[in-house]
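Fill-in record for U6 snRNA-associated Sm-like protein LSm4.
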Amino acid sequence: MLPLSLLKTAQGHPMLVELKNGETYNGHLVNCDTWMNIHLREVICTSKDGDRFWRMPECYIRGNTIKYLRVPDEVIDKVQEESKSRADRKPPGVGGRGRGRGREDMPGGRGSKGIGRGLDDGAAKGGGRGKSGSGGKPGGNKGAGRGWG
């Protein structure tokens, strides 16, 4: 569960925000962004000593000053259900992270490297752009490996 997905789900719910300097803010989450900046409404601010209180209609808290957030359990449960249902919908072995090569024994998987890409005998002829050969161009190894001629 990612913190930002948790905060997006918590919009409209009450939450407690404690800052690094010790102050706490209780209010209803209006919005948050990718830097965890938070906009609260109906806010009660408590000093770090706990002896002074302020009531504000709304406030904006910069994300890098936040020490921790306390959100209701119902929000956490909702996020866990959503992530579980999202994982159930995706068929196994499809997608995932990155653009991997696939498996050769799977239907539709890619064969061995180079087949069908014009690389089957290019290295033997000096074709390729490696640093070791002339690269198939007159003039020796000038500019080899840079990708332009």
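KEY FINDING: The mean pLDDT is 79.
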